[in-house]
Each structure stands twice: as structure tokens, then as C-alpha cells.
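ligand=zinc ion
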Amino acid sequence: MRSQPHLLAALLVLTGCPTEPAEPEAEPPTAADPPVLYVVSMMHAEESVQHHENENIYRSFADGLEAQRALFSDHGARIDFGPDWTFIEGVKRWDDQQLIEHVASGHGLHTHAHETIWDLASVNARLADAGVLGNPIANGGFLESGPGGTNWIGYVDAFDAPNGDPMFSTVIGYKNPQTQLPDSSGTCFRPSATGDWTVHDPDGPLLYLGSSSPAEQGAGALDFATFRDWLDSRLDSLDPDAMNTAYWHDSLHNYAQPQAAADRRAQWEVEFEEYLDPLVEAGRIEWATFEEMTAICLAQE
Ligand SMILES: [Zn+2]
């Protein structure tokens, strides 16, 4: 909690109390406060599951999503969900309010495309068909090259929305596209579209939000055994000159079987109560969707 010496002095004057001798001017509060770490729980529904061909399969995954959303909402936390095209087709077929409700309840969505059949633009258009128009967050195309010799940043930037504007403002990853290891950056920056994408270029066309998941974990998958140590280490090494971001992959397939899902939600309750909620109360972490992180990063540029 920041002290309010000037307000206190003014109150003392107004109420007629003698004022203390003038205190030395307080440090600007931001100089002493550690930077906040913006976090979100990234969740994917993969195209390898036939959500769109079997309503029971779709429903088991959607039930898991809804329960996870309720749990996170109870703690003021955020999920950012990236359904690949099969899940979105299931939504359109059987559950047309699902993604609308997801966004309306404060959680995020991103355009997640493995591109074995359909590319980012196709998945983005399917999100629009499912009621979520103009999603600006891209996750996919990692191994593609863009026009004019650009890298995957240039590839993603080349997609245009129906109105002719760039389709995406921001790319996310949780693993390095070249190495498939969790990417080590933990900040928001503008990747180079022409050289090494991990290098900041003030003229870069897109923002990147870094995950910095532990390298020993497969593809940034959430591991409760190391979760706190990892986040603690992030909090101990924040960059004071950047917007610090972190996320992990808590795939929806962890929640498709009722008992396994219930066990995992119970573990989440422990993490919230013992660890995450106190960090929020202390001002060390703040939940934000990828779109919210994008707005904060743009404002800080
Ligand atoms: Zn995926």
C-alpha cells in the first residue's frame, strides 16, 4: 500500500491538528514498486479431436471448458482459449452461444491454427461465424515464411481482415517455432519480420507476448510440480523496462474426462488459495487476456 503523506497533511490542516515537521519528499511510487507480471492460463482445443463430428465428444470438452471458466471467474482469473477449427465447428453446430459467453464473462479467445488443413484466416473467419468478430490474436503458422522473404511474423502479418486492415495485431507462442522448445522471452516486444524474430524491431508489424515457460516442460505444458518455482523465478527477474508477461498451456484435453477434470480443478483451487490469489492481492501478478495485454503494451509504447 502506498502512503499518502500529502493527503494526510492536508487532512491534519483541515481538521486543525498540528502538522508534523515536513517529511522529506517521498520517492515516486513507481520507482520502488516491482513491475507487475501479467498472466493468463492458455487453453487449446486441438484439431486432432473430432469435436465437429460427434456431439458427445464436443459436449465432454465444452463441459470441461465451462467448469474451468467458472472456477477461474470465481477468482477473478483469466483463461485465454484457442479453439482450432474442429471445436469451433462443434460450437456452430450444437452450442452457438459458447464462445460468445466465454468472451462476455471476461475471458479471452485467440486464433489457434495448426494449419494441417485450414490456415489462420480460415480459423479466424470461423470464430467470426461463431459470434466472435475480428479476433486480433494469432497462434500458428510458426514454420511458414511470409512474402518478400519475411519470416513467420511476416507470414502472419500478411493476413488481411475482410475490411482490408491487418487481421492480427499480436502473435503469441509458448514454444519457439524453430526449436519447438518453450520460448524464453517473457515480455511484450515487436519481433523483427525480416531477421531473427526474437529481436525487437521498433518498426515490426506485430506485437509478441512472451510466455517464458520452463524449457524442461514439453511445449510449455502446465506442470503443477514446478509451477510455483517457475513463477517465483519470473517474479524475481522481471524486466523493469518492459511489460512482463507469462502464460502456460493448460490444454482442454486435461478436462474432457469428468474425474480427471475434477481432480485437476481441485489442484487449481489449491493453487489459487495458497499461491495465486495472494500474489494478486500483493500486486505482484495481474490476470489479463491476450487482448488486454495487447492494449496495455500498446499504451506503454
Ligand atoms: Zn494446439
